Each structure stands twice: as structure tokens, then as C-alpha cells.
Amino acid sequence: MKNTIRDLRAARGWSQAHLADLLDVSRQTVIAIETGRYDPSLPLAFALARLFEQPIESIFFPDQETA
Questions:
Q1: How confident is residue 64, by pLDDT bands cut at 50, 70 and 90?
Q2: Could you write out the three-class secondary structure of the chain?
Q3: Looking at beta carbons, which pairs linking 31-39 to residues 24 or more positions away fall under 8 Å?
Q4: pLDDT tens digits for 16-57?
Q5: Mind telling me which InterPro entries this protein's record contains (predicted)?
Q6: How many Cβ atoms sit within 10 Å of the Cβ of residue 23?
Q7: How many CA atoms lie within 13 A of 10 on its CB side?
Q8: Beta-sheet pairing, 60-61 with 2-3
Q9: Cα distance between residue 6 and residue 8, in whole Å
Q10: Helix axes 16-23, 27-34, angle to 10 degrees
Q11: pTM of this prediction?
Q12: Which of 13, 15, 31, 61 falls 20 to 30 Å from 67 in CA-CA distance?
């Protein structure tokens, strides 16, 4: 799943470690989400949406591949 987490984080001047602390996850989790190697759980996706004050669908969007 593609996302805009890296851009949103950078716009706020936050490090990956700082975002991880805010979300109570590891920095490796933030890296994996940003690179699309890990799709966050629904509660984590909602936490990201609240933190960035954006609707989930403006942060996460599916790859263009068909299922």
C-alpha cells in the first residue's frame, strides 16, 4: 500500500524516531510503513490519521495492481 507518511513527517520536521515515539512503535516499523513494506494495522492507521490531522484515505491508497 502506498502512503504519504514520509512527506507528512518531513513537512513537520520530525525524524523517524520521533514519529515512532509518538506512535509507540519501533523506528523500523515507521521505516517499513514509509517504504510500503508493511501495511499498518487499522488502529495504527487511525493513529497516524489523527496525528497528521488527515483522513486515512488521503494518507494511504492502494497500489494500482489488481487483486
A1: confident
A2: CEECHHHHHHHCCCCHHHHHHHHCCCHHHHHHHHCCCCCCCHHHHHHHHHHHCCCHHHHEECCCCCC
A3: 33/3, 33/5, 34/3, 34/5, 34/6, 34/9, 36/1, 36/2, 36/3, 36/63, 39/1
A4: 999 999 999 999 999 999 999 999 999 999 999 999 999 999
A5: Cro/C1-type_HTH, Lambda_DNA-bd_dom_sf
A6: 16
A7: 5
A8: antiparallel
A9: 6
A10: 110
A11: 0.89
A12: 31
Grid cell listed for 4? 504519504
Question: Grid coordinates representing 3?
Answer: 502512503
